[in-house]
UniProtKB/TrEMBL annotation, chain A:
Top-level taxon: Bacteria
This protein's name: Glutaredoxin family protein
Keyword Transferase: no
Keyword annotations: Disulfide bond, Electron transport, Redox-active center, Transport
Segments crossing the lipid bilayer: none
Leader sequence segment: none
GO molecular function: protein-disulfide reductase activity
Family: Belongs to the glutaredoxin family.
The species this protein was found in: Candidatus Caldatribacterium californiense
Organism placement in taxonomy: Bacteria, Pseudomonadati, Atribacterota, Atribacteria, Atribacterales
InterPro entries (alphabetical): Glutaredoxin, Thioredoxin-like_sf
Coiled-coil intervals, chain numbering: none
Domain Glutaredoxin: 4-68
From TrEMBL, chain B:
GO molecular function, one term: oxidoreductase activity, acting on iron-sulfur proteins as donors
Membrane spanning residue stretches: none
Matching Pfam families: FeThRed_B
Protein name: Ferredoxin:thioredoxin reductase
SUPFAM superfamilies: Ferredoxin thioredoxin reductase (FTR), catalytic beta chain (SSF57662)
Species classification: Bacteria, Pseudomonadati, Atribacterota, Atribacteria, Atribacterales
Length: 82, 132
């Protein structure tokens, strides 16, 4: 099973859809709602998101080695199956 | 009747207002779709955001106008996104993009990248509010 990490915002509907995608398929995943983190931790996490995705927009989904920016179900499926 | 460039307080773009200027008149920003009110300032006319409508009425009118101006459409994601924009308004004082971490002027909905054509390029805005 690949490591899955979802960087999300609590206000972002596509982030909720990504959570639902993993939950409804019983795919183990980790997630963080970046906007709900304490300030210092938030800055660190956003810097990490920016480093891996080049953006400060969400969701950013890491599946194994792959980084998916935005909610793209096809790419998520492909990354999980690789 | 004179035309003069007048600044939209939402998207910060100055546009040419050719209509007759009357205090209190409602104007729609042709760039972002914001509903604005014309007022006589000290030296020239100014546009302000209306105070007599609720935040929900304001953002609904703005996104409807923007979609109409650009020929974009909505889908079932519209209502969750209106809700999310209202949450941002409550938390941070303006309609900042629900999918971006930075609550800064260029991320006020419709955000700068959307106004600069991301819907044309990607088929939708980053959040999925506006669709081609």
């Amino acid at each position: 099973m690949k490591y899955v990490m979802l960087y999300a915002l609590s206000t972002c509907p596509f982030c909720k859809m990504a959570k639902h995608f993993f939950e409804s398929r019983n795919i183990p995943y980790n997630f963080v709602d970046v906007d709900l983190l304490p300030e210092e931790e938030q800055e660190k996490t956003v810097a990490e998101v920016q480093r891996i995705s080049g953006r400060r927009a969400f969701p950013v989904i890491v599946i194994g080695e792959e980084v998916i920016v935005g909610y793209d179900e096809l790419r998520i499926r492909e990354a999980l199956e690789k | 009747m004179t035309s003069e460039r007048i600044l939209c307080p939402v998207c910060q773009v100055a546009f040419l207002l050719k209509e007759e200027k009357v205090p209190g008149k409602r104007v729609v920003c042709p760039v972002c779709g914001a509903v604005l009110v014309l007022e006589k300032g000290d030296a020239s006319w100014v546009l302000r955001r209306p105070q007599d409508i609720t935040p929900e009425e304001e953002i609904r009118a703005r996104v409807e106008n923007f979609a109409r101006l650009r020929g974009y459409r909505f889908n079932e994601m519209k209502e969750p996104l209106i809700e999310a924009l209202l949450k941002k308004y409550e938390r941070y004082g303006d309609f900042y993009c629900p999918c971006k971490i930075d609550n800064i002027p260029e991320n006020i909905c419709p955000c700068l990248e959307t106004r600069q054509g991301s819907v044309e390029r990607n088929g939708r805005c980053h959040c999925g509010l506006f669709w081609k």
